[in-house]
Amino acid sequence: MSVINNQVAVSNLVSMEMLSNEEVLALIKRGSEFKASKVELPDYSSIFTTNLFFENSTRTHKSFEVAERRLGMHVIDFNTDTSSVKKGETLYDTVLTMSALGVEVCVIRHPEVDYYKELIDSSTITASIVNGGDGSGQHPSQCLLDLMTIYEEYGHFDGLKICIAGDLTHSRVAKSNMQILKRLGAEIYFAGPDEWYSEEFEAYGQYKAIDDMIEDLDVLMLLRVQHERHNGSAGFSKEDYHRTFGLTEERYSKLKDSAIIMHPAPVNRDAEIADSLVEAPKARIVAQMENGVYVRMAMLEAIMNGRHLEK
Ligand code: CP
């Protein structure tokens, strides 16, 4: 891994832990350059990529596809329902096949935490792996787009008071973000139900009731209640969750004028955030989705730089 002429070069991009602060800042600045159309696009017209999504996704899947197409890459279609996954083919064998076909980049979302380890350790698989989310593990592209959105607003991370609120235990967004934001100098707070808070968060920030900090926050990062990981019941009605832990209109009115609200989406409207606030002036939820394309272009470029260095 390295930064050359402000550009990152990596063989795989599977977690935020593998990136230095310098590399993180270079990636988000490169994302901003792509957004501002300041980049002369390299010729990636001979590159094949594929997006292997074993869990549902709209934003991550489709924005990687837009990023790949904007970079001029060929995107190989893959659908778990119509592929040999239905015949029992494993993830390893699917990626081995793609690699043998000449696919150079596999973006993968999979329910198993750390699914990528056996893929990047393989001496036969030559395709680079980009993690589009591993169970409740990591979500590096979401983290980088979140960082880009905060950086666009404040131009730094040092001393920012950032609250990550909600379904912490199940959230790969919370885990990716808390680690890197602390490293970058932000003050992290956590809020949400006790049941979804655990010791693993203690090293990164303070756990408080949302009402005890709302007026002091620079960034309120709301998390989706991940119903699919709650074995059928999250244990709260939507109304109870919203009233006790969510961003109500009353809480919104207490935020600083300069504060911003983030949410990785999809949003459970009127649970994590009032329906009326999803596109409110302090909300950056749409900006996050837009930034996702540009930061993913930067990630793909970093992979291509890494592959070029290895040749
Ligand atoms: N934020 C996010 O990962 O959304 P998708 O599940 O739609 O990709």
UniProtKB/TrEMBL annotation:
Annotated GO biological process: 'de novo' pyrimidine nucleobase biosynthetic process; 'de novo' UMP biosynthetic process; amino acid metabolic process
All copies of domain Aspartate/ornithine carbamoyltransferase Asp/Orn-binding, residue ranges: 158-302
Pfam families the record matches: OTCace, OTCace_N
Pathway assigned in UniProt: Pyrimidine metabolism; UMP biosynthesis via de novo pathway; (S)-dihydroorotate from bicarbonate: step 2/3
A Gene Ontology cellular-component term: cytosol
Binding residues annotated for L-aspartate, in chain numbering: K87, R172, R224
Binding site for carbamoyl phosphate: R59, T60, R109, H139, Q142, A265, P266
Annotated EC: 2.1.3.2
GO molecular function: amino acid binding; aspartate carbamoyltransferase activity
Catalytic activity from the UniProt record: carbamoyl phosphate + L-aspartate = N-carbamoyl-L-aspartate + phosphate + H(+)
Domain Aspartate/ornithine carbamoyltransferase carbamoyl-P binding: 12-152
Keyword tags: Pyrimidine biosynthesis, Transferase
PROSITE patterns on file: CARBAMOYLTRANSFERASE (PS00097)
Uppermost EC category: transferase
General function of this protein: Catalyzes the condensation of carbamoyl phosphate and aspartate to form carbamoyl aspartate and inorganic phosphate, the committed step in the de novo pyrimidine nucleotide biosynthesis pathway.
The family this protein is said to belong to: Belongs to the aspartate/ornithine carbamoyltransferase superfamily. ATCase family.
Subunit structure: Heterododecamer (2C3:3R2) of six catalytic PyrB chains organized as two trimers (C3), and six regulatory PyrI chains organized as three dimers (R2).
NCBIfam families: asp_carb_tr, PRK00856.1
Protein name: Aspartate carbamoyltransferase
Species of the source: Streptococcus bovimastitidis
